[in-house]
Amino acid sequence: MYAEFYNLTGLPFQLTPDPRFFFSSSGHSKAMAHLTYGLHQGEGFIIITGDVGAGKTTLVDLLLSDLDKSSHVAAKIVTTQLAADDMLRMVAIGFGLYEEGLEKADLLHRIENFVTATYFNKKRCLLIVDEAQNLSVASLEELRMLANLSVNGAAPLQSFLLGQPQFRATLGSPALDQLRQRVTASYHLGPMTELETHAYIVHRLKMVGWKEDPLLEDDFFSAVFKHSGGVPRRINTLCSRVLLFGFLEQQHAIGPAVVDQIASELHNELGLVTSSASGTTPTAGHDVAIPNLDDRVAALERSVERHDRAIRRAIEIAASYVPAKR
C-alpha cells in the first residue's frame, strides 16, 4: 500500500531475508570475509553468531546465491530442539536422502555414501545449520562426527553454524573440545553504527526506486538508530510501520516525531524496539521492560485502528483500477 503511494517498486523493509538487499556494513563485510575464507579452506566448521535480526541468515543466503552450483551441493537446516538422532534425520532430509524407518546406522551410511559420491563427481557438500543455539551438545557431536568423513585425504562435507550469542557459551563446553579444534573461521556479527544505519535505510529505499518521497528529515535517521540500536531487523520493522503511518496520514515528509511515536507503539505492543521515553537502545540478553496495561491497550487500539484504515485504503486503491460499468 505505501509502496504505491510513494512510487516505490517494492517493499524496502520486508522482514524476510533477501540477499538482493544486502548492505555491506563494516561488520557484515568482515563476516562475509570470514565466510568466504572458510569456504575456500574447504573443511571444518564456519561459525557466525549475532543477535536476533543481525543479518546472519541474509549473509549466508548471499553466499549461497553466488555459489557455483556446478561444484557445490548445499543443504540448509533451521533447527529447533533436536535430539542427536533427529539431527542426522534433518541432515538426510536436507540432502534429499531420508527414508522413513531408517535406523541411525543406515542414515549414517546413506549420508556417507552421498557425500563420497558427490566428491567423486567433483562437487563438495555444504551443510548450513541456522538457529544453532538450540542444538544440544549431543547433536553438535553428531555434526562433528560427520565432519570426520574423509575421501582421499579431503573433507567432502563442510558445515556452517549460525546462532545467537548464547551459542558461543555452548561451544565453550569441555565436551566440545574436538569440535572447537575443527573451527576454520568464526565471527560475531554486531549491530551497525549510527552512520551505517543511515546508509542502510537509504540503500534499501534506493533499491526500490526511492526519489526522496517521502522526504526524510534530518533527525529521522538518528531517531531510528536510537530506537533500533542498529539491528537490521528492528530497523526494518520500525521503518516499515513508519512508512505505513505516512501513507495513512498522506505525509510526504517524515520527521523524528513520527519515528518516536511509532517506536513507542511497537514497544507497547510487542517490545520490538526500545521505548522512546527511555532513550536507550536494546542490549543482547537483556529483557525489555513490560509497559503497563493501559499503555498496551491504548497502543493495540491505535494499531487496530491503523490497520483497519490501511485495509479500507487498499480497497479504495483496488477499486480505482476496476473499469466503471457501462
Provide a descriptive summary of the structure in words.
By secondary structure, the chain is of the alpha/beta class. The chain has helices at residues 2-5, 26-41, 56-65, 84-94, 104-120, 137-147, 166-171, 177-180, 194-207, 220-228, 232-248, 256-270, 293-320, and strands spanning 45-50, 72-78, 124-130, 157-163, 183-189, 215-216, 253-254. A five-stranded parallel beta sheet has the order 2-3-4-1-5, with helices on both faces. The chain has a two-stranded parallel ribbon with strand order 6-7. 35% of the residues are buried. Residues 275-291 have low confidence and may be disordered.
Count of alpha and pi helical runs: 13
Provide the helix percentage. 40-55%
Largest sheet: 5 strands, parallel
**Pattern of helices and strands:** HHEHEHHEHEHHEHEHHEHH
CATH topology group of the largest domain: Rossmann fold
Distance from first to last alpha carbon: 28 Å
- CA-based gyration radius: 23 Å
Gross geometry:
elongated
Per-chain topology:
Layout: H1 2-5, H2 26-41, E1 45-50, H3 56-65, E2 72-78, H4 84-94, H5 104-120, E3 124-130, H6 137-147, E4 157-163, H7 166-171, H8 177-180, E5 183-189, H9 194-207, E6 215-216, H10 220-228, H11 232-248, E7 253-254, H12 256-270, H13 293-320
Parallel strand pairs: 1-4, 1-5, 2-3, 3-4, 6-7
